[in-house]
Amino acid sequence: MIAESNVMESLMKRMFSVAWLLAVCVALPFAHGADISLEQKDAKSSETTGMGSELEVNYGFVAGGKAHTGGTDVGYVSEQNASLKYVVSPELTRNLFLRAGLEWDRYSFGLTGNAPLPNTLQQISGIIGIDCQLSDQWLLRLEVQPGIYSDFSDLNFHDLNAPVILGASYLVDSNLQWFLGLRIDPRSRYWVVPAAGARWKFADEWTLNMMFPEPRLEYELNKQCQIFFGGRILGGTYRLAQDFGDTHGLDPRFNDTTVDFFEIRIGPGVSWKLLPNVTLEAEAGCMIHREFEFDDPHTVIRSNNPAPYAQISCHVNF
Q1: What are 51-102's pLDDT values in tens digits?
Q2: What letters, b where the CB count within 10 A reaches 16 and e where it falls short, cover 48-80?
């Protein structure tokens, strides 16, 4: 049986995590399945017409890491994660672009011992939003991601959610841009999460890209290849099965509860521009923190011991 965590201790640890996250975003490289950064856009982008689109595919693996709750070990947890995101951006007016698309995100966990955790957390959602260029310096984004966020054991109305993303970027010049963002998710225990960051090209080959959820320091080897060291932040809020507590030998209050998943990874990587519009990335390093926070009863299961991870990604712009 899971022991309920001390509420004050959990809140203090969460406040520390959020404060550390914000410091990371504005310094140097943790993470959600939710992206609250704006892509950098040239100030003259409004002079172009037509429709753009983007495709992103990711796969990652994390080796087993020890999990614990309330000082009690509950086994080892390994992880596979995969995601697919496709967005089209037709131009509505000279300074206004629609964003419409689909996103799929899945975490599969390998559990040993008596870890009382779901085997799968998954998201299938739409993407509906707008990008607005207020001036040559200011860009705004509003985005809603309605969809299913759950363990997909017994789908029902409670599995539906619609997080909201608000973002703004200020383009100082071609070498420096500032970013602000806000993620609103009423299903989450922490339903408003702010973030801030910047992108600073401080030398011909060096760029400090402090953008949530993938802050990193980049070095350009040539026009096709760059290396980087940074962080990756993953996470989300998911509804669990109506019998989750019963099937895991837990308090019946765990039935149909929600869980906030949160994970931080750091490590080096390489980015290779295979074609002008196709970029491949590979990275490896350590998962340094993972957290499952159940809403009711309030219980937190953490993995603080570093575990190796590897990830590959493909980005395509049309």
Answers
A1: 899 999 999 999 999 999 988 888 899 999 999 999 999 999 999 999 999 9
A2: eeeeeebbbebebbbbbbbbbbeeeebbbbbbe
Tell me the HSE value of 282 on the side-chain side, using a 13 A CA sphere: 3
> What's the domain count of the chain?
1
Rounded CA-CA distance 161/158 in Å is: 8
Residue 1 lies in a domain: no
In a domain, 2, yes or no: no
Residue found under tokens 């595919």: 57
- Pairing label, strands 96-111, 138-144: unpaired
| Sign of the alpha-carbon torsion through 184, 188, 190, 193 | negative
CA–CA distance, 15 with 9 (Å, rounded to integer): 10
**128-138 residue pLDDT tens:** 999 999 999 99
What rounded mean pLDDT belongs to the chain?
A: 86
Containing domain of residue 241, as a range?
Answer: 7-317
282 Cβ contact partners less than 8 Å away, ≥ 6 residues apart: 269, 270, 310, 311, 312, 313
